[in-house]
Write a structure and sequence with these properties.
alpha+beta; 9-stranded antiparallel sheet; 16 helices; 42% helix
């Protein structure tokens, strides 16, 4: 018979919890249109709010108000998946507007409120903020939750203590001591009634407070509108309340024959109503559903049958109702199931809900059993107190040790589910509360260890009343720490878990390089531009439009400059107007040279070159051989009288500037940009024009001083090293790499091994990806005023 009762409770718990869908707990605002903190040039017709999980229709609202507090929203509607709330607006004028929302998650039954600002036709000041703000739990909510949690955990511990520890201990006492110790049974029953009454009142108060806050209405108005009844019967919040009240009612019933039968009938009632509810999709699916009257009818019919049976059966002559000691633990288990229905775990799934229930049961056995143990020993007559303590403490010590092990295992599982990263313990409210909980639990465990290792042997040695008083003081300390744990848990259970509030780790945006390959503009995006797996996307446009993938190919030649590893050729495949490749070819940190090759049939290849820095460059000392190479390159540059350069600078976000330069030492240069701007500089005199317009003349602050190709970049190098060998024109060359004096830029140069000429210079700095080539050394160049 006991097995059938436990089976009934399991069915009830599974039925109520089985409707939990895979979600993350708490419906927090995931994104909005307009975004939080946006400044819009034109007024939107609606505000769209997208939440992390489904919200309850009719109980989830949002309003938009202007700077005076007047409501400018007209109506709101919920999408079919119940995740997106659309708020229609009146025509908006210039100004700042506030969006406020109050939603109830159908996944875990938790309410979330918050707000954000946006502006129309004006900037949004810094003091207004640019993000969403979710309202933290109020002190009244935390206080009521703490009272309810404390009462539920105590009732669970008391029920298990009475059945599994106190009864066997009394049976082993001498008859005189057992008579004196029977005072403990009466005291625990009074405590059970008081705790059940507190739980019932606190549960009702918590529900009324949450409904009033969610619906932004006084408590009486909540019931007059009927939304309170909808919330009670059609949400997990309401069903959590009903299950907890049913469990409290079972414990308030006196342990008479009719009372014991009523407890069993109530357990069966919960199992039947829970199974029917799960059959129709769970509490959340019943809101506004035609199935709700069916569930109500089943509840009423089976409730009346159970009550009638509890009254009539004891009146039948010859029928003896057994003690039914398991009814207390069954009622406590139902109360804990009611807490789990409205927990974060309920939004994750049945497995997480089951683990949460086991976690609560273990907490009840240890933390809730401590007050029961203290009270049982405390109220017992001094003559029987040492004997009762010596009988109770070993049993409770073993149970507490097993409970602590269960708490560690189930707590670790819950942390893995709700805390996605270690940093969440420091940067999220949920994580900080969890860390505080762990501190208090460790303190309680330390006191428990003292009881087990020091005071338990003294009690077993029958050291008398002095050992008992020491034990009671230590248990009182454990109870105080347990109360602190439950206070933190009360706040923890109504705080959105770190899995939905943890700020995303800063991620480097995709690197967008742009350059010119002959007549083609090449836009190459590297995602995420970090060592490892990367995606390359190239868009190639010519004078006549995008490159036809049927008549051309796009290749990327990747050359690692700081190591002599094999060159790589990556063939990009056509995909929706672009050329794409994905793989681990760029798996090594360091400085790379990427050449994008545009290949067409019967035509010479066109190429553009980009520098790429993956990861960071280590801070290493200069190699003497590399330093000598740069010194000789600087000397070779100083002997060049005239030369030409082609400079391409990408900003990393899709912009590019290409400049062609003619240079004559010591102070003459001419350049033309890709946009058509031109300039001639002779000493300190500058002639310039924009896109073919008239020439203008001005004076520079100081005259130009040219020292040779790339001479400015070759001076004061830091961390200079030799890189890979290569081929430059008719001679072999070597890559030389270095940093600028301040470390803000990384350079790589291809230096000829015979002439020490710098053929190509690459630089990576903040928003600066430069490739420069020098050619036509000592060519006959004449630069004169235009």
């Amino acid at each position: 018979m006991a097995r059938s009762r436990w089976t009934a409770v399991a069915i009830a718990a599974a039925a109520v919890l089985g409707a939990a869908s895979s979600a993350s707990a708490h419906a927090v605002l995931a994104r909005s249109a307009p975004p939080a903190g946006a400044s819009l040039s034109a007024a939107p017709a609606a505000v769209i709010l997208e939440f992390s999980e489904p919200v309850a229709p009719g109980l989830s609202t949002a309003t938009v108000t202007d700077g005076t507090g007047a409501v400018v929203s007209t109506a709101s509607s919920l999408s079919a998946d119940r995740r997106t709330l659309t708020v229609s607006l009146h025509p908006l004028r210039q100004g700042v507007y506030t969006v406020r929302w109050r939603v109830l998650s159908t996944a875990d039954g938790h309410a979330t409120t918050g707000f954000f600002l946006f502006a129309v036709g004006q900037p949004l000041g810094r003091t207004a903020g640019g993000g969403t703000a979710a309202a933290p739990p109020s002190p009244a909510q935390v206080a009521l939750r703490w009272v309810n949690f404390s009462a539920a955990i105590f009732l669970a511990g008391l029920a298990l203590f009475s059945v599994a520890m106190l009864r066997p201990s009394l049976a082993h006492l001498d008859p005189p001591a057992a008579v004196h110790a029977s005072d403990a049974v009466r005291a625990l029953r009074r405590a059970e009634v008081a705790a059940a009454a507190v739980l019932a009142a606190g549960t009702v108060g918590e529900f009324v407070l949450q409904a009033s806050a969610l619906l932004d209405a006084p408590p009486l108005a909540v019931w007059r509108t009927g939304l309170g009844w909808t919330m009670l019967g059609g949400t997990k919040t309401g069903w959590s309340v009903l299950v907890r009240l049913a469990g409290a009612a079972m414990l308030l019933v006196p342990p008479t024959a009719s009372g014991r039968l009523f407890r069993v009938a109530l357990v069966l009632w919960c199992a039947i109503v829970g199974a029917v509810t799960a059959l129709f999709g769970g509490p959340a699916a019943l809101a506004g559903s035609s199935h709700l009257p069916v569930v109500v009818l089943v509840a009423v019919v089976y409730g009346l049958l159970g009550a009638a049976a509890a009254v009539v059966i004891p009146l039948v002559p010859g029928v003896r109702v057994p003690a039914l000691w398991a009814s207390g633990p069954l009622a406590a288990g139902a109360i804990l199931a009611g807490m789990t229905v409205n927990s974060h775990a309920a939004a994750v799934g049945l497995a997480a809900s089951a683990v949460d229930w086991v976690h609560l049961a273990a907490a009840g056995a240890w933390v809730g059993g401590l007050p029961a143990l203290w009270l049982a020993v405390r109220v017992t007559h001094p003559s029987a107190r040492p004997a009762l303590a010596a009988a109770l403490v070993p049993r409770f010590s073993r149970l507490a040790g097993a409970s602590l092990l269960v708490l560690v295992v189930t707590g670790a599982y819950s942390a893995l589910v709700h805390v996605p990263a270690v940093r969440a313990l420091a940067v999220t409210p949920y994580g900080r509360l969890l860390a505080a909980k762990l501190v208090f639990v460790l303190g309680a465990a330390a006191l428990g260890a003292y009881n087990r290792l020091v005071l338990r042997p003294r009690l077993a040695a029958h050291e008398g009343e002095r050992a008992v008083r020491s034990f009671l003081r230590t248990v009182a300390g454990e109870i105080s720490l347990g109360a602190a744990v439950l206070l933190v848990v009360a706040a923890l259970t109504i705080t959105p878990p770190a899995s939905v509030t943890l700020p995303a780790a800063p991620r480097q945006p995709p690197l967008a390089l742009a350059g010119m390959a002959g007549p083609f503009r090449v836009d190459l995006t590297v995602i995420p531009a970090q060592p490892g797996w990367n995606r390359l996307e190239a868009v190639v446009r010519g004078p006549e439009g995008p490159l036809d993938p049927l008549s051309a190919r796009v290749l990327v030649r990747a050359l690692k400059l700081d190591e002599d590893v094999s060159p790589l050729t990556i063939t990009l495949q056509p995909q929706g107007g672009r050329f794409v490749a994905e793989g681990g070819e760029l798996g090594l940190a360091g400085v790379w040279e990427l050449q994008v090759v545009v290949r067409r049939r019967g035509v010479r290849d066109e190429t553009t070159t980009f520098p790429l820095l993956l990861g960071s460059v280590p801070n290493r000392p200069s190699d003497p051989q590399a330093l000598r190479a740069l010194e000789q390159a600087l000397q070779a540059a100083s002997r060049v009288r005239t030369w030409r350069e082609r400079e391409q600078i990408a900003d990393g976000v899709g912009g590019v500037a290409v400049t062609e330069l003619d240079l004559v030492r010591p102070d003459r240069l001419r350049f033309r940009t890709g946009g058509g701007n031109e300039a001639v500089i002779i000493g300190s005199t500058r002639y310039f024009r924009t896109a073919g317009g008239p020439w203008e003349k001005d004076t520079l602050p100081s005259p130009v001083s040219l020292q040779g190709p790339f001479a400015t970049y070759l001076q004061e190098p830091q961390g200079t090293v030799l890189g890979r060998p290569g081929r430059c024109g008719d001679e072999s060359c070597r890559a030389v790499l270095w940093r600028s004096p301040g470390g803000t830029a990384v350079f790589a140069a291809w230096v000829g091994e015979k002439t020490y000429r710098v053929y190509r210079l690459l630089m990576v700095a903040l928003a600066h990806y430069m490739t420069t080539e020098a050619y036509d050394h000592d060519a006959p160049l004449r630069i004169a005023p235009p």
